Amino acid sequence: MRSQKEKMIAGDLYIANDPELAKESHHGKRLSRLLNNTTEEDGELRTNILKELFAKTGESVYVEPPFHIDYGTNTTIGENFYANYDCIFLDIAPITIGNNVMLAPRVGLYTAAHPIVADIRNEQLEYGKPIVIGDNVWIGAGAIINPGVTIGSGVVIGSGSVVTKDIPDNSVAVGNPCRVLREINDNDRKYWEREKARYFEN
What we know:
Elements: H1 4-10, E1 14-15, H2 19-36, H3 43-53, E2 61-63, E3 67-69, E4 75-77, E5 81-83, E6 87-90, E7 95-97, E8 102-103, E9 108-110, E10 112-113, H4 118-121, E11 125-128, E12 131-133, E13 138-139, E14 144-145, E15 150-151, E16 156-157, E17 162-163, E18 171-174, E19 179-183, H5 186-201
Parallel strand pairs: 2-5, 3-6, 4-7, 5-8, 6-9, 7-12, 8-13, 9-14, 12-15, 13-16, 14-17, 16-18
Antiparallel strand pairs: 1-11, 10-11, 18-19
Helix pairs in contact: 2-3
């Protein structure tokens, strides 16, 4: 018979009140507490904690405390990652984050879900679905990423969005529920190249 952890990672119903899962959850909570108790002078310590917390990271990873996570061992992060204050990761299923991803304050990545039928939910059965975030993604403040969502590369998610479905590459997506507003195009690039040139002129 499969363990509760094996069921959890597979996205099947499982019971979280399990000794093996409790031990792994303790790992995540202990390290996030240590992170949250650091100061701005503790840059190297923060990096070391994050590299121990997550399953894998790039060389450059920065999380602004406070930060909260279930496990950490189910989250993989690419190069040049930044998360601002108060982000929450519920990583009972895998969270996979690409390179050059920026999270604004209070972004939530929630892989956890519960049966909508109350008597089954009341038996403490729950499940999770993975979240995947591509490269070069910026997620605005207060956005919620729901279980099973894939966000493509080059995407911008507007503040306060509730993302319930996959978002294609190179899109601006906003709202509750989050919808694609438009594709990022050459006009955007021209505008921001001009803004960058003005920056270097001043």
